[in-house]
Every structure is written in C-alpha cells, then in structure tokens.
Amino acid sequence: MEILLFCVVIILFTSLGGPLEVEIFLEPLEVLANEDALLKCKYKEPESDLSHVAVRWTFTSQTAKKDVYIFNGGKHQPIRNGAKMFDNALQKGNASLYLPNVQRYEEGTYTCVVFVTPHKEEKSSVMQVSVQPKVSMSVQEISTANGTEHFLQCDVKEFYPKPIKVSWFKLSDGKMEYVSTSQSTEDIVTNSDGTFSVSSKIKTEPTWDEQTDYRCLVEHKTIFDNFTLEADSVADKIPAVYQIIGGIVGFILCAICVGLCVGLCIWYKKSKETQEIRTGKDSHKDGAMQVTDRS
C-alpha cells in the first residue's frame, strides 16, 4: 500500500513539474509582401489566470535581432507596429502572433518564448517573404548603319527571391511557338531595397501578309499560373506607317491630278473663247472688205 501511494505521488509530481510543451508553425512559412501573416504558437498548459502567463516573440535576421511582441501578466506590449495577440486565445493555450502588411525585410527567424509559472519553453521557425514582379512591355527603336531595328522589351521589376525565368512566344496564324532566336535577357540587377529586376528584349521583323503577336512569359514562385503579357508586334505597326505614308502620297498625287485637270479645263475654255473671238474678228474683216469692193 505504501509503495502504491509513493508511485502515485511520483507520477503526480512528474506531471506537475514536467517541461512545458510548445508547438510553432512549420517552416518555411511563405508569405507575399503586403499581405497579413499569422505566426502560430501553441502551448499545452492552458491557464485561465493570465497573470501567470508571459509570451515573448523575437525576430532574428542576418543583420538584426529584436523583440516583436511581449505579453506579461495580462499586459500587452506590441513593439512591431500593428502586431496583435488576444487574451481569449492565450487562455486556451494559443500564443499566435498576428502581423499585418508584412514587408520583405521581415523575412527571418521568429522565436516564440512561453512562460507559464514556473515553466519556460521556446520554439523557433522561419518566415519567408516573397515579392511579386511588376511586368511591363515597351517598344524600342535602335538606329544602325543598316537602318532602324525594332524591338519589344519586357521589363520585370522589384521581385524577390531572385530565381526567375523570362521567355518569348510568337502567335502567328493561330499557332503559338517558342522564340529561341533574336532575343536577349540582361543580367539580373539588385535594387536598393533588396529586390531584383531584369529586362528581356526581342527583335521584330516587318511583315505585310500576316498578323503576328508576341508574348512575354514570366515564371516566378509568386505567380502560380505564370504571367503572360501580350503585345502586338512592332512589325505589324511598321506596315501601318507605310500605309499611312502611302495614303498621304496618294492623296497628294490625286490632288495634283485634279489640279492639272482643272487647269487643263480652264486653259481649254479660255483657248476656245480666244479662238471664237479671233474667228469673229476675221468674219467682221471679211464683211468689211466685201462692202468696200462693191463700192
């Protein structure tokens, strides 16, 4: 009987004095920049009296280590602007941290330290912040010794992380094909805020007999279905310019022809009137001469 009682006491002491169990979010937690994040942290010692509970969230990156949020004995101290924890969640053993409008520089290791008197436990995990690229397309003209060359340029700006792929496709007569020639992609540039930018261009050729569209395809981890930017080729616009010029030249030539016709008509009319006047004068002279002869 005494041995059984001793075993029960040992079991109770072990359960009361055992380590605090803490669970944190799985890493990496991937978040898009400018979106909200919930960093999960739970402990298996719920305490309705929060005066016996304290939670400290810290952030560590390659360049800094700092506190993000402190909860101690019922008092909240948010260090990071907008960060929140909730009393009703803490009473249920939930010490999760809410972060609104996450930025790229907040990528790093987050540590959840939980104190439930007299125990302490902490767990760490990593949050990765990605930035979607801004994609735009423009037309460029480069003068060379052989004339003017036309290009389409696809600019991919302010993305993170660095790995990215930019490809060109051509849609002609209803057929889509990958363009492997006449294109070039510059080296990736690092921006001052730690994001990256890159540009790719493709040379276009003028065509008169077909409609050709070029498409810039961007593949990045933040774009789930990839991103396609479509633009009419410069080649299609070059003939249009020629057509406009041809129309103007044709209009000028037509105007010249009309002018010549009007001029010829006026000349012919005047010539006819002059001829008639001369004929009238000649008739008058002949009549006068006949009268003189009779006299």
TrEMBL record:
Keyword Disulfide bond among UniProt keywords: yes
Listed Gene3D superfamilies: Immunoglobulins
Signal peptide (from-to): 1-17
Ranges of residues in domain Ig-like: 19-130, 133-235
Compartment(s): Cell membrane
Transmembrane segments: 244-268
A GO cellular-component term linked to this record: external side of plasma membrane
Keywords: Cell membrane, Disulfide bond, Glycoprotein, Immunoglobulin domain, Membrane, Receptor, Signal, Transmembrane, Transmembrane helix
Listed GO biological process terms: cell surface receptor signaling pathway; cellular response to lipopolysaccharide; immune response; negative regulation of T cell proliferation; positive regulation of T cell proliferation; T cell costimulation
InterPro entries according to UniProt: Ig-like_dom, Ig-like_dom_sf, Ig-like_fold, Ig/MHC_CS, Ig_C1-set, Ig_sub, Ig_V-set, T-cell_Activation_Regulation
Protein name: Ig-like domain-containing protein
PROSITE patterns noted in UniProt: IG_LIKE, IG_MHC
Topology versus the membrane: Single-pass type I membrane protein
